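User: Please predict the structure of the protein below. I'd like the answer in structure-token form so I can feed it into my own downstream comparison script.

Assistant: Understood. Taking the following sequence of 294 residues as input:
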Amino acid sequence: MAKSKTPLHLCFDRPVASQHTVAAAKIAISENKGNQPPPLVLGPGASSHPLSMALFTGKMWPSSGKTLGVRFLDGSKTQRKLAQKYANEWTQFANVTFKFNGGASSEIRISFQADPGSWSAVGTDCLVTGTFPKNQPTMNFGWLKDDTDPVEWRRVVVHEFGHALGAIHEHQNPKGGIQWNLPAVYATFSGPPNNWSKDEIDFNIVQKYSIDQLNATEYDPESIMLYSFPAQLIIGGVATANNTDLSDEDKKFIGTNYPKKGAAKPAKQSVAAAAAAPKLKSGQRVHPGFPKFA
């Protein structure tokens, strides 16, 4: 009798709806001026479209420090306690505070029942009420139960709160080196438990961010933001590790973007870097249904 395959429990992205992208960019910049994208270098007679500019806007909270309210919309006492315990691992290395039981105005709103998946709004996207209404979750832990293994609790909660602080999926890091076995990837994620379309698979797995969209570190195979992918999905047949804790690079990344008092502040973007023209290249990340720009 063939051994049944273990379902791949992966976080999937919850981006803002395409019609709210410009609003999301304005909110992000109002929260942190550093989210402002570099200027587009345009040809004679060309003009920049707000949606095109929004593609390159960051989603980080202020580097001077931020207290984020956290509200549980449901969940048992055990679920709430474990989520709080593991979320706070980030605060050891960054000038951020999570205010649990933050009330109706909380930026982060957690459900354990919204759907079977696990996901989070990325950074300031949680403030976009058109996509994330005030009475709806911005984060979900669909498979974490009272009796789930503590290692899985840490892996998932730390990962999702990384998104809430603006971190991306490591397999979509523009400096990453994963070469996908595309037929196997499409076959795996088009079936249960994900049942994604090809566009959704491209968006969540295959495509990378433009290097102009974020201040990406070098690809980190030990990052908590990298999920474990089996060998058959990768050319060369070497699986990614099952990372369950913050890596040294994760700690460095979050400490650089949210430096604690007395720590060195992140370097400002150089004039040369700011003058570089952001461009979407083949294979880079565009939300399904989002307008395409040359």
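That's the full token string. Strands lie at 66-72, 96-100, 108-111, 118-120, 139-141.
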